[in-house]
Amino acid sequence: MMDEKFDFIREDTKALKDAGLFITLRTIDSPPGAWMAVDGKRVLNLCTNNYLGLADDARLVQAAHDALDRFGVGPTAVRSIAGTLSLHAELERRVAEFKGVEDALYVQSGFCANQAAIPPLVGKDDVIFSDRLNHASIIDGCRLSGAKIIVYEHADSANPRDPDDLEVKVKENLSGYRRGMVITDGVFSMDGDVAPLDRIYAVAERYGLMTMVDDAHGEGVLGRGGRGIVDHFGLHGRFDVEIGTFSKAFGVIGGVVAGKRVVVDYLRQKARPFLFSNAVTAADTAACLAAVKVLAESTELVERLWENTRYFKDEMKRLGFDTGHSETPITPVMLGEAPLAQEFSRRLFEAGVFAMAIGFPTVPKGMARIRVMVSAMLGRKDLDYGLEKFAEVGKALGVI
Ligand SMILES: *Cc1c(COP(=O)(O)O)cnc(C)c1O
Question: If you take atom 12 of ligand 1, which residue's CA is the nearest one?
Answer without folding.
Answer: 216
